[in-house]
TrEMBL record:
PANTHER family: MYOTUBULARIN-RELATED, MYOTUBULARIN-RELATED PROTEIN 12. The gene is Mtmr12. One of its GO terms (biological process) is phosphatidylinositol dephosphorylation. CDD domains: PH-GRAM_MTMR12, PTP-MTMR12. Keywords: Cytoplasm, Sarcoplasmic reticulum. This is Myotubularin-related protein 12. Belongs to the protein-tyrosine phosphatase family. Non-receptor class myotubularin subfamily. The keyword Cytoplasm applies. Residues 173-611 form the Myotubularin phosphatase domain. The keyword Transcription regulation does not apply. The lineage of its organism: Eukaryota, Metazoa, Chordata, Craniata, Vertebrata. GO terms for cellular component: membrane; sarcomere; sarcoplasmic reticulum. It is found in: Cytoplasm, Myofibril, Sarcomere; Sarcoplasmic reticulum. Pfam families: 3-PAP, Myotub-related.
Length: 717
């Protein structure tokens, strides 16, 4: 049975941004609502522009269903071309991946998005010509390789009036002054200097225009090997020890060249180690952390757990949730990265030792570790503007290849790796473990991960500062000619109005250090799906209470599921690391001091908001962290209104700039999917596991079935 909303009578046209062009469209397209496995849905128009794929129904024309957390650029039924992950066509109930030229056109289109939304469109009632146009248009514009200048970023920049102030207190690190200020802030200017050697990119196109090196490193040294083998400063600790990074020399070299380079490196190391420089510890991340290929493989498997086609699929994976989650290896990679960051923090904080991170280009895992160390050790990096400045410094100006790693141009899948997403996943672990230490919320991190795929901001669409600078010049529609004026993602007013932006700020942020009082235990919501892997045995912890409670809770939940590989890793930390870690854990947490993540077993969790927000079956009715946030924001609103009344009684002038907070009175409509989706109908969990139903349907296979691992690298990888 198909529950149908009648086709719309009135014409609905897409809202186009400046520079956005309508490329193709199809009417009478039926969009399924995959809430409960039924065929319920709505008719509308499917359009493809040079910016997005959009579905327009009669609800699109009305403002009655406006969500409280509305993105002004990308609507609920919009998919930017860069956000499309894979497109499948359904032919006679069989799914087939669509790429390139199509000989036959499908009766149903399934679009999997990088933000983990899944769209199902039925084309059975659409005219054949329109089906050909829309399917080939969508596949061509979202899946085929393209030139950089063909990105919507350039169309928008040339057509949009740029009158927004994009800085928003975020330090952009594109001037010498910004680097000198950062040196002064961290007291690193005694031993390090900002250099202009790369002005005009005469040293290297991969290096930024300005960067910081040890004072004793000469300009000739920097020029000698095009910036390779030069320790570049990231951050200085309060005790003077510094975090540095360096791009390694190519491994395939003849003996004489490698000998010369070795002598050069020895000289560089000596300049750092001699007084007033502390000892130096080098760490080659390419050998001590998983490779980019491993990270990509793990994430590809992991995301398949959340790209759910239907309610039946959800419950089928629910039976094997722990084994599926462990087999992806994604949580283990997060744990290893956090552990490495703790090791680096120990060297800086306890041993007063400089740490030099080495990687082939120093623009991938170096960015992850250096950013994490700063978030853990520098409370400024836990403020919103501080975190944004950190991303600018280490990633955008630091030369992380966003264009290649996100595969925005569909040039090469070999280069693709979710390195920046890995950082956000690691930061989220810290945010959920120590909420008062962060000025921003998990919603901020989720929205930031979504912004990776919105090509109106230049922040995540270039491989280097050089690539951006060389592509800045262009013809503008408004003036005769001139450089493009790109937007920066840090101007949140472009995407959200002030009410929506309130969800990005943590109302419980501890602005001033306070003595740590005994923390109240918060009520634990009963999750339908456990978000961390269980321990095989209980371990005593120096912090009483939490760890044991977490372990007991998990053991009750899983009754004997044994997942040992995750915990009993061969890379157990050395004694000095464990001493440092335990010593820190035994003291009260200073939210403005050093923060070390808890990394044992079930402490590493799945980032529920990002990965489960589109799955109605996984929602917690009236629960989740958003329920707490809703209550807090309600209280804030009440306090503000009382303050206004008091001011009126005292006849004081009211400035009128009271920060607005969202009205969340109707908490009956809230679930853990908020603010990305309101309460949705939930499918009923089958009395028998889904896999058992399938077995009963096909008795021949019953004997062969077992609770084996499901291979996630199949169709959809």
């Amino acid at each position: 049975e198909i529950h149908i909303k009648e086709p719309i009578e009135k014409e609905v046209n897409p809202c186009l941004l400046p520079g956005e062009l309508l490329l193709c469209e199809a009417s009478t397209v039926y969009k399924y609502i995959q809430e409960d496995g039924s065929n319920r849905g709505t008719y509308g128009k499917l359009v493809c522009t040079n910016f997005k794929i959009a579905f327009l129904d009669d609800d699109s024309a009305s403002d009655d269903n406006e969500p409280q957390f509305k993105n002004k650029i990308v609507g609920e039924n919009d998919i930017t071309l860069q956000c499309v992950d894979q497109i499948y066509g359904v032919y006679d109930e069989k799914k087939k991946l669509l790429t390139g030229q199509l000989r036959k056109y499908p009766e149903k289109l399934i679009i999997y998005c990088k933000d983990l939304r899944v769209f199902h469109f039925c084309l059975r009632y659409t005219k054949e010509e329109e089906v050909k146009r829309i399917v080939s248009g969508i596949v061509h514009h979202s899946q085929t390789p393209k030139l950089l200048k063909r990105l919507f970023l350039f169309s928008y920049a040339s057509a949009a009036p740029n009158n927004t102030d994009g800085r928003n207190q975020t330090v952009m690190f594109d001037t010498l002054e910004d680097w000198r200020d950062e040196l002064e802030r961290t007291k690193g200017n005694v031993k390090y200097k900002a250099v202009t050697t790369n002005e005009g990119y005469r040293v290297s196109e991969k290096l930024p225009l300005y960067f910081v090196v040890p004072i004793c490193v000469s300009e000739e040294s920097i020029l000698k090997y095009e910036g390779r083998g030069i320790p570049i400063w990231c951050w200085s600790c309060h005790n003077g020890a510094a975090l540095l990074k360096m791009s390694a020399f190519p491994k395939e070299q003849d003996d004489s060249t490698s000998q010369t380079q070795k002598a050069f490196l020895d000289g560089i190391y000596k300049t750092i180690s001699k007084p007033p420089y502390e000892l130096l510890k080098t760490d080659d991340l390419s050998s001590s952390l998983p490779s980019l290929q491993d990270i990509q493989t793990a994430y590809t498997r992991f995301k398949q757990l959340f790209l759910i086609d239907s309610s039946t699929d959800f419950w089928a994976t629910d039976v094997k949730w722990f084994s599926l989650l462990e087999s992806t290896n994604w949580l283990e990679i997060i744990r290893r990265v956090l552990k490495k960051a703790i090791e680096v923090a120990e060297c800086l904080e306890r041993q007063h030792t400089n740490v030099l991170l080495i990687e082939e280009s120093a623009t991938d895992l170096c960015c992850v570790i250096s950013s994490l160390v700063q978030v853990m050790m520098d409370s400024y990096s836990r403020t919103k503007s501080g975190f944004q400045s950190l991303i600018q410094k280490e990633w955008v100006i630091g030369g992380h290849g966003f264009l290649d790693r996100c595969n925005h141009l569909h040039r090469s899948e070999k280069e693709e790796a979710p390195v920046f997403l890995l950082l956000l996943n690691c930061v989220w672990q810290l945010v959920q473990q120590y909420p008062p230490a962060f000025e921003f919320t998990e919603t901020y991190l989720t929205v930031l991960s979504d912004s990776l795929y919105v090509p109106i901001f230049s922040t995540f669409f270039f491989n280097s500062q050089h690539q951006k600078d060389t592509n800045m010049s262009g013809e503008s529609l408004k003036t005769q000619s001139g450089p493009f004026r790109f937007l920066t993602v840090w101007d949140w007013s472009v995407q959200f109005d002030p009410k929506a932006q309130a969800f990005l700020n943590n109302p419980l942020y501890a602005e001033k250090p306070k003595p740590d009082k005994s923390q109240r235990k918060t009520a634990r919501f009963k999750h339908q799906r456990q978000l961390s892997l269980p321990l095989t045995q209980t371990k005593s912890s120096t912090k009483r209470g939490f760890f044991r409670e977490e372990t007991d809770h998990l053991i009750k939940n899983i009754l004997g599921k044994r997942i040992g590989k995750f915990i009993n890793s061969s890379d157990e930390p050395p004694n000095s690391f464990r001493e440092f870690y335990d010593s820190w854990r035994s003291k009260p947490v200073d939210y403005h001091g050093l923060l070390l993540p808890r990394i044992d077993g079930p402490e590493i969790k799945v980032w529920a908001q990002r990965y489960l927000r589109w799955i109605p079956e996984a929602q917690l009715h009236g629960g989740g962290t958003i329920a707490t946030a809703a209550k807090i924001l309600d209280l804030m609103e009440e306090v503000q209104s009382l303050q206004v009344k008091m001011d009126e009684e005292h006849s004081q002038a009211i400035s009128g700039d009271v920060q607005s907070v969202p009205l969340l009175r109707n908490s009956a409509r809230l679930s853990s999917l908020f603010p990305f989706a309101l309460l949705q109908r939930q499918s009923i969990k089958p009395a028998l596991p889904t896999s058992t139903w399938k077995d009963l349907e096909d008795e021949d296979d019953l004997v062969k079935r077992d609770d084996e691992f499901v291979d996630l690298s199949g169709d959809m990888s």
